[in-house]
């Protein structure tokens, strides 16, 4: 009985030690989601994949011993397969065998070996870090459709011409000297001026803010007084509230005075034109009035029994012609521009009644 208890106690102790080892190795939380066989030893097997003899990437790492990893590769350009001579468009994806084949300085060069989906031929594409592009190595032919920036008015991004001569050292020195002079004469003074301006405005922000707020208050008072004056003018003259009145300053006064002078001159020209037209009508009416007066005298001597209405009409027309003639003479003597008032019609009627 004591032997059984001792064995049970030893088994419980071993289980506790195993659980502690799992917790130390960082797999304590994973132990609740994975099955650990009884013969699993965390000191001997670093992980369950190592215990089962599998790779973490699964079937993609079936050639990992040869340095080959299966990846999903997308064609960067259009190609023609060298085996079946079929066209394969850009963007077609393959399960390619990725392998490191060299280095360009510290940048690795990778090779992607793909199997054509239209035949059983293989083609290989490598990276070119020097020219930042992909190159077809074997099994296919690339479609030449590169865009040349120099032919289209641009600039070459990468200069990889092996036949290009060395750079002129004097030209490089002159370029660097011009850049240094431009920096010393233009850029540095400009930066210093901006720095001084920034220091000036940020030296005492309270004073600057006080000055700006005082200016705003003064402008606000001026605007309020002008609005009150405009409202009083609108209320006196019955102007609409939506009417915007112009500001009263020297320029506005000069402009208003000029417009008033132009309007006054136009009014005087219209009045003088009316007076000239009226004088011409009077000149044409005066012979008719004299002829009517002579005919009236002859009629009175020959026909004394004529009606009183015709006697009254001849003096009225004569008086009217006389008034019009005096008016025309006055307008002509003044020079075409007269400010005298026209004859009062009431006085004219009184004269006619006396006659």
Automatic annotation (TrEMBL):
One of its GO terms (biological process) is mRNA splicing, via spliceosome. Residues 287-310 have a biased composition (Low complexity). GO terms for cellular component: post-mRNA release spliceosomal complex; U2-type spliceosomal complex. Coiled coil: none annotated. Residues 247-355 are annotated as: Disordered. It holds the Pfam family Saf4_Yju2. Residues 252-272 have a biased composition (Basic and acidic residues). It comes from the Eukaryota. InterPro entries: Saf4/Yju2. Belongs to the CWC16 family. This is CWC16 protein.
């Amino acid at each position: 009985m004591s032997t059984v208890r001792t064995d049970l106690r030893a088994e419980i102790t071993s289980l506790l030690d195993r659980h502690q080892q799992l917790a130390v190795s960082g797999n304590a939380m994973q132990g609740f989601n994975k099955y650990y066989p009884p013969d699993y030893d965390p000191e001997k097997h670093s992980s369950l994949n190592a215990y089962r003899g599998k790779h973490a990437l699964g079937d993609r790492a079936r050639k990992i011993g040869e340095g080959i990893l299966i990846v999903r590769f997308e064609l960067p350009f259009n190609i023609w397969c060298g085996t079946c001579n079929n066209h394969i468009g850009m963007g077609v994806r393959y399960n390619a065998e990725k392998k490191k084949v060299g280095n360009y300085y510290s940048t690795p060069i990778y090779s992607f070996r793909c199997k054509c989906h239209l035949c059983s031929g293989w083609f290989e594409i490598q990276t070119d870090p020097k020219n930042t592009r992909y190159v077809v190595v074997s099994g296919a032919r690339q479609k030449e459709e590169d865009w040349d920036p120099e032919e289209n008015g641009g600039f070459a991004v990468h200069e990889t011409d092996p036949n290009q001569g060395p750079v002129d050292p004097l030209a490089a020195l002159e370029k660097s000297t011009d850049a240094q002079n431009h920096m010393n004469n233009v850029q540095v003074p400009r930066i210093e001026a901006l720095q001084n301006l920034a220091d000036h405005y940020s030296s005492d922000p309270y004073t600057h803010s006080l000055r700006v707020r005082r200016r705003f208050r003064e402008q606000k008072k001026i605007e309020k007084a002008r609005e009150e004056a405009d409202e009083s003018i609108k209320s006196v003259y019955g102007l609409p509230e939506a009417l915007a009145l112009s500001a009263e300053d020297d320029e506005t006064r000069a402009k208003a005075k000029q417009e008033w002078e132009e309007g006054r001159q136009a009014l005087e020209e219209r009045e003088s034109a009316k007076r000239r037209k009226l004088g011409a009508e009077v000149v044409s009416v005066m012979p008719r009035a004299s002829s009517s007066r002579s005919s009236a005298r002859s009629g009175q001597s020959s026909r004394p029994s004529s009606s009183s209405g015709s006697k009254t009409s001849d003096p009225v027309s004569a008086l009217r012609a006389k008034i019009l003639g005096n008016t025309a003479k006055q307008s002509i003597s003044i020079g075409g521009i007269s400010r005298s008032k026209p004859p009062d019609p009431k006085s004219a009627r009184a004269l006619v009644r006396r006659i």
